[in-house]
């Protein structure tokens, strides 16, 4: 019976990639509570069982795949987030528990976490701290499945961090202290670029909140460790522009604290940022690098360093004097 259910759900999961079918499925969920209840029952059975059968785990993963595909549509995603937060909590429970359905649950949670209601639900639960722990559990020797779990966890956490209270909760949970060693360990490993993308975005959101004074100071020691890790990220070949852009954005947040400018001077932050600014040729990464450099230029020794490297012109390209 489970095998037949699995085949039916797989077919439906593929079909809902088509908008007319997806809209029909959304109407069915909205009008018939029993439809969603039956899907939730599969998830709850998997969450509550210890060492469930492979068939049960496979069925749960297929239900999650179906919900993931439905949540690619903004209207359907809003429906699930607005009216069915218990479903979101079921998915978050599976996403933060080791098991065969974890990867599928994390992928589903990433899509749903685009919605502010889901972001707030994650912040108000214990799931956010658990996602942070999963996001940091990545090593160069990790297999593809482990990297995917860490990447999706970082994406979901970064989406929750778009809420001010989410960024605050992550900072209080030691996000920078946990992410910095993982970022440092990932340098030079192309297989971890997708994870770096998500992790650096998470750092950018946490440092933005700190720079805005929403969290208080994260401490110069924490800022120094974060800056070192971010500066080590910049020279890697083949990085997506989004990684470079968010790394430069984070460094700009750190540079907005006047007391931390001498620390950034000691790390020679000017040179790697200047390379990104020149290499980007107008993309977001080069603009963010120029903005960070403009903040560094407020420190006389770094202003001189910019002059020595002929870097003032690139700042004026993007930042009005």
Distance between the first and last residues' Cα: 70 Å
Beta fraction: under 5%
How many strand elements?
0
Low-confidence stretches: none
The helix fraction, in percent, is over 70%
Q: Count the helices. How many? A: 20
Radius of gyration: 22 Å
The H/E string reads: HHHHHHHHHHHHHHHHHHHH
| Oligomer description | single chain
Going by helix content, strand content and strand pairing, the class is mainly alpha
Q: How does the overall form come out from the CA principal axes?
A: elongated
Largest sheet: none
Mean pLDDT value? 87
Write the layout of secondary structure elements.
Elements: H1 2-15, H2 19-31, H3 33-48, H4 54-70, H5 74-83, H6 85-95, H7 102-112, H8 116-123, H9 127-136, H10 144-160, H11 164-172, H12 175-186, H13 193-211, H14 220-233, H15 241-255, H16 261-266, H17 270-280, H18 284-296, H19 300-308, H20 312-318
Helix pairs in contact: 1-4, 2-3, 3-4, 3-6, 4-7, 6-7, 6-8, 7-10, 8-10, 9-10, 9-12, 10-13, 12-13, 12-14, 13-15, 14-15, 15-18, 17-18, 18-20
Please provide a written account of the structure.
Helices cover 75% and strands 0% of the residues. Helix 1 (2-15) runs parallel beside helix 4 (54-70), helix 3 (33-48) crosses helix 4 and helix 9 (127-136) packs parallel to helix 12 (175-186). It has helices spanning 2-15, 19-31, 33-48, 54-70, 74-83, 85-95, 102-112, 116-123, 127-136, 144-160, 164-172, 175-186, 193-211, 220-233, 241-255, 261-266, 270-280, 284-296, 300-308, 312-318. It contains 20 helices and no strands. The radius of gyration is 22 Å and the shape is elongated. With 321 residues, the chain is an all-alpha fold. It has a domain at 1-125.
């Amino acid at each position: 019976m489970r095998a037949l259910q699995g085949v039916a759900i797989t077919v439906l999961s593929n079909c809902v990639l088509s908008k007319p079918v997806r809209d029909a499925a959304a109407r069915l969920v909205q009008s018939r509570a029993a439809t969603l209840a039956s899907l939730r029952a599969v998830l709850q059975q998997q969450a509550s069982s210890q060492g469930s059968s492979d068939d049960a785990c496979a069925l749960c993963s297929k239900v999650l795949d179906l919900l993931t595909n439905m949540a690619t549509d903004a209207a359907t995603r809003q429906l699930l987030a607005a009216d069915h937060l218990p479903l979101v909590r079921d998915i978050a429970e599976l996403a933060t528990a080791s098991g065969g359905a974890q990867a599928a649950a994390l992928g589903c949670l990433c899509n749903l976490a685009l919605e502010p209601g889901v972001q707030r639900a994650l912040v108000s639960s214990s799931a956010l701290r658990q996602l942070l722990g999963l996001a940091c559990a990545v090593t160069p020797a990790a297999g593809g499945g482990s990297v995917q779990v860490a990447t999706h966890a970082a994406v979901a956490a970064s989406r929750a961090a778009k809420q001010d209270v989410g960024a605050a909760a992550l900072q209080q949970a030691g996000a920078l202290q946990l992410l910095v060693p993982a970022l440092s360990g990932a340098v030079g490993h192309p297989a971890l670029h997708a994870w770096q993308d998500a992790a650096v975005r998470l750092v950018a959101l946490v440092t933005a909140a700190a720079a805005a004074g929403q969290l208080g100071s994260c401490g110069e020691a924490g800022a120094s460790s974060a800056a070192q890790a971010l500066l080590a990220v910049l020279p890697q070949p083949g990085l997506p522009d989004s990684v470079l852009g968010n790394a430069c954005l984070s460094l700009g947040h750190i540079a907005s604290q006047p007391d931390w400018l001498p620390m950034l001077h000691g790390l020679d932050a000017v040179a790697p940022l200047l390379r990104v600014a020149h290499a980007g040729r107008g993309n977001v990464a080069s603009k963010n690098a120029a903005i960070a450099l403009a903040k560094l230029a407020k420190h006389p020794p770094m202003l001189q360093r910019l002059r020595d490297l002929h870097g003032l012109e690139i700042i004026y390209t993007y930042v009005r004097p």
